[in-house]
Design goal:
264 residues; 2 domains; 20 strands; 2 helices; alpha+beta
């Protein structure tokens, strides 16, 4: 009977993880370039079940140790568990902003940026700015990389232009080029937070099917209506597992209080 408690608890934990994932998607519906996360669920490993018992001694009434036996019953599942929470990289809608340093990507590419700890990261968020030192940077200070893998340093003055191939010009003169990469295996991109991704074997290569659009931003691909429906469904799933846990607990209480009771 205790197995039922564990199975229901496993289902409740998966439902809670789903609610957390959906809530994070909803919290980022207005985050430029955000890619919603999915929750992949799998069954827990099957376990072999045996019936264990001790046979009585061979001679009735004799002080002979019993013989322990194990009889194989079969396999038993013990509920569900979270397998992974990958991002889905569907293209988000493109919205015009009129800001010369806003850049949207149309296609599968990512901007290459250098984080504050000097780590190489990737993002679809193209809401850039010129920082105090003249570097093209993200809103959190991460520096945008150019064609040679070095941060793009912009002059203090001049009209910034960004072509569809990522070429950065100042007053019409080519200056640098945005480092935009695509991945052979996007599933190996792991979210790190702050709308950043780590290459965990995704296979970065120079973008060939991605276009840069100046004065625009890519919106989040999170679907508010779908997320709200999924949120309600998973909350009901959690409630159902919670009720099963309570029922199993009540049944265990009855068993404990009645097993071994004898009539006087």
């Amino acid at each position: 009977m205790v197995r039922g408690l564990y199975t229901a608890a496993a289902g409740a934990l998966v439902a809670q993880s789903a609610v957390d994932t959906i809530a994070n998607n909803l919290a980022n519906v207005d985050t430029a370039g955000f890619k919603r996360a999915l929750l992949q669920v799998q069954s827990q490993p099957l376990r072999d079940v045996y019936r264990a018992q001790t046979d009585p001694g061979r001679t009735p009434g004799a002080r002979v140790d019993g013989v322990a036996t194990l009889a194989y019953v079969g396999k038993l599942g013990s509920g569900a568990q979270v397998y992974d929470t990958p991002s889905t990289f569907e293209q988000g809608a493109i919205a015009a902003t009129g800001n010369d340093l806003d850049v949207a990507l149309s296609g599968p590419g990512f901007f290459a940026i250098r984080a504050g700890n000097n780590a190489l990261r990737y993002t679809r968020d193209g809401s850039f700015e010129r920082d105090a030192n003249g570097f093209l940077s993200a809103q959190n200070g991460d520096r945008v990389l150019g064609r040679n893998g070095a941060p793009i340093a912009l002059p203090a003055t001049g009209k910034i232009g960004i072509a569809r191939d990522g070429t950065v010009s100042v007053d019409g003169r080519p200056y640098d080029r945005l480092s935009v990469v695509e991945f052979a295996n996007p599933a190996a991109l792991r979210p790190e937070g702050s709308n950043r991704y780590v290459d965990a074997g995704a296979g970065a290569r120079a973008a060939t099917n991605t276009t840069a659009l100046q004065g625009s931003l890519e919106k989040s691909n999170a679907d508010v209506v779908r997320s709200m429906v999924d949120l309600i469904s998973n909350e009901r799933w959690f409630d159902a597992n919670e009720k099963v846990i309570q029922t199993e607990d009540d049944a265990n209480g009855v068993a404990i209080s009645t097993v071994g009771r004898t009539n006087a």
